[in-house]
What we know:
Layout: H1 2-11, H2 18-48, H3 65-98, H4 104-139, H5 149-158, H6 160-183, H7 214-223, H8 240-247, E1 250-254, H9 261-270, H10 272-277, E2 282-288, H11 293-303, H12 314-325, E3 331-337, H13 345-354, E4 363-368, H14 371-377, E5 383-384, H15 390-402, H16 406-409, H17 412-428, H18 436-447, H19 452-461
Parallel strand pairs: 1-4, 1-5, 2-3, 3-4
Amino acid sequence: MDKVVGILRGVAGVAADANAFREFFHWVTPHVLAAVRSQQQQQLLQLDSGGPVSASTGNNRTAPLHQIQDDLQKLEHNLWVIQTTITSTMHDLIDRLEWHSHRETEARHLRQIKDAVYDAEDLLDEYNYYALKVKVEASKNLGQDHSHGPVLEFLDSVNFNGNFSKVMEIQDRLKHVFDQSMGLGLHKTPKKFDRLVRPETCRVLDESQIFGREQELKELMQMLGVDGHKRGRPAAHTNTTEARRMELPVLPIVGMGGVGKTTMAQQICEDPEVRKHFHHRIIWICVSDEFEVNRLTKDALKSLGVKSEDTDTRDNLMVNLRDSVKSKKFLLVLDDMWDDVLKDEKGWRTFHRTLSNGLDGSMILVTTRSSKVANLVSDGNHYELKGLQDGVFWNFFKLCAFGSVQSWSNRPELQRIRPELERIGRAILPKLKGSPLAAKTLGRLLKCNRSIEHWEDILKRAVAIRTRGD
């Protein structure tokens, strides 16, 4: 038994990478075959002696050994294919499309790809759970007579017929969405700034979903002049420089890191009414911690379909940008603007003034953590995005940490401990300050191990956990 436990400790981390699946199945297959062989021999002996034959708890146990071995090998291969497809291909495609999720085609395919990937990851989690259960059960001191119990229960859980169809369906969906993306050339979509790391998405949530933000979304759209609420340019100011700065309205969304500013801006850009209002001319630029006017101008020109050369001077770039937006209605999103812009106020004013040739009703939407940045780029009016309220935040956190209802329905042992886990979860919640990113980050840590000990440990360390970005 000690040997079994020792092997299990080395192979139970199934979800760590694709090879872990192979390692686990290479270990578990001979143990499954030995356990089934032993049980079938016992049943034959009972039959020969005229005694009652105990009913098998699973149809898999009565199959020929060679068929069980073949089925396990097929299952191992298919899960390995799904894992490697997600790791090597789909995550890269998602990363590329997220940079351009404000565009209709990219946004639509991004949702389809994420749905397929999330379902695939849920399937992998299911087998992760099976491996974890084998580890836990085999590590108990049950004695030699019961040493086959955990692997037989694993065999019963696999349910080849049902799981094979589910695995093949997931594989087909991944292939379908990838082939679609290849056909449209989306796999060549450029990553605007490879040096920037975008935050990972909670696999149980689509980024386009807004939890408890309906009112904020409505208010922001009204401030942008959408939904029948017209917003013209402010009246002329007595100070000439200030008047020029105020010609093109700027709406900053201010909030702490991880509160959902970027997600809110993406939701605004994807709204059909917003797209129609701005004549389907939406420009998205990720500013981050480096405010560099030439780069921003080139990105804006590229989004407008205008080529620029590396040798172009700032003056040439500004003239091209001014001419490109002249008499056109547009929404420019400057995402994640940091305090670096405060060092170049003149550059900001030049950039802002160049865009003032646009049609009346054009807007700039800025997301930032800094109230100083908001005051610089606007007239002092900004929209503060706060953390999610308690009730909504708890529902969001539950989805991240517990997954869907379906993921628990067939696991009575998890249902028994869920009240205790919810108690721990509610104790963690206040430390996250309503931040969706914090909920997703902690949710992933909690979901990978649904033991009370693990959750208690996370609770103790939650104060020290810090997250960055949107």
